[in-house]
TrEMBL record:
This is Oxidoreductase. SUPFAM superfamilies: NAD(P)-binding Rossmann-fold domains (SSF51735). Transmembrane segments: none annotated. It comes from Streptomyces ossamyceticus. Belongs to the short-chain dehydrogenases/reductases (SDR) family. Keywords: Oxidoreductase. The keyword Metal-binding does not apply. PANTHER family: PHOSPHATIDYLINOSITOL-GLYCAN BIOSYNTHESIS CLASS F PROTEIN (PTHR43157:SF31), PHOSPHATIDYLINOSITOL-GLYCAN BIOSYNTHESIS CLASS F PROTEIN-RELATED (PTHR43157). It comes from the Bacteria.
Length: 310
């Protein structure tokens, strides 16, 4: 794995991929490199304007690449259902689902369905999307689901009695919990896939400290100019570029031999390369917590993974 880079991505011709949040940052780089290796890539973006700009830019960078845009708002479960239905109408397979999109450290708010914004977008939206696309994933030999977490999951375990962090909201607490939820989801998905005898691989990744608009978007939207400036300085002087931050995602999505429930991160914790030994909190490997989160997520979203039921 040492020194692994985009040149090591296997040929992706004939494969279909969905990358959420592909209009910028890690998602954009991952989508671009998959297209460069021949995959047919769907950019799943909330903003049509930013999605179209990303599509035009990517087609310029990867001439002849098979790249398309479908709108997806993970904070609206009706939108998630529409996206999944539109994808199924057009595509016969799904080899790679990269659950990349997310929000970070935003002010307390609610999704269209009434869930806390970070838990609802980062976890529930991707849970529902994966469940709705599960028939295609299970029907595609060698498919993978890669869900983006963060080293910030170490800040907080989830509270099954307060999934919305309603008792005492803290923007970083809620973010950490949503990233723990991403890892518990991957853990339970991997367990259920194995129990069903499926060869679909569920893995997780995190980019370390990578310069993307994730750090500045929340502060900019809320008018917190000092915080936005602070984040921009950090991105400029301390973060690795998005191209490097995307390597763990691309490794998890394409490298041979990635084990189910792997957590792929930077080789040096925050920077550089990709390694399957990224530090992971023990609570993200809790079978009982994973099962309970799964059951509650099914109830909250109304999405069930019927093909994985025993």
């Amino acid at each position: 794995m040492a020194g692994w880079n985009v040149g090591d991505i296997p040929d992706q011709r004939g494969r279909a991929a969905v990358v959420t949040g592909a209009n910028s940052g890690i998602g954009y780089v991952a989508a671009r490199e998959l297209a460069r290796r021949g995959a047919r890539v769907v950019l799943a973006c909330r903003s049509e304007e930013r999605g179209l700009a990303a599509l035009e830019r990517m087609r310029g960078e990867v001439p002849g690449g098979h790249v398309e845009l479908l709108r997806l708002d993970l904070g609206d479960l009706a939108f998630v259902r529409e996206f999944a239905a539109a994808y199924e109408e057009t595509y016969e397979r799904l080899d790679l689902l990269i659950n990349n999109a997310g929000v970070m450290a935003v002010a307390e708010g609610r999704t269209a369905d009434g869930f806390e914004t970070q838990f609802g977008t980062n976890h529930l939206g991707h849970f529902a999307l994966t469940g709705l696309l599960a028939p295609l994933l299970l029907g595609t030999p060698g498919a993978r689901v890669v869900t983006l977490s963060s080293g910030m999951h170490l800040r907080a375990n989830i509270d099954l009695d307060d999934l919305d962090t309603a008792r005492k909201y803290g923007r970083w607490l809620a973010y950490g919990r949503s990233k723990t939820a991403n890892l518990l989801f991957t853990h339970e998905l991997a367990r259920r896939l194995a129990a069903a005898g499926s060869d679909v691989v569920a893995a997780a990744a995190h980019p370390g400290y990578a310069a993307t608009n994730l750090q500045t978007a929340g502060a900019r939207a809320e008018g917190r100019k000092a915080t936005e400036r602070f984040m921009r300085v950090g991105n400029r002087f301390f973060a690795q570029p998005a191209d490097a931050g995307a390597l763990p995602t691309l490794y998890a999505a394409t490298a041979p031999g990635v084990a189910p429930d792997s957590f792929i991160g930077p080789r040096f914790l925050m920077w550089g390369g990709a390694t399957a030994g990224s530090p992971r909190a023990p609570w993200t490997l809790d079978d009982r917590a994973g099962e309970l989160l799964w059951e509650r997520s099914e109830r909250l979203t109304g999405v069930t993974f019927d093909q994985l039921k025993s």
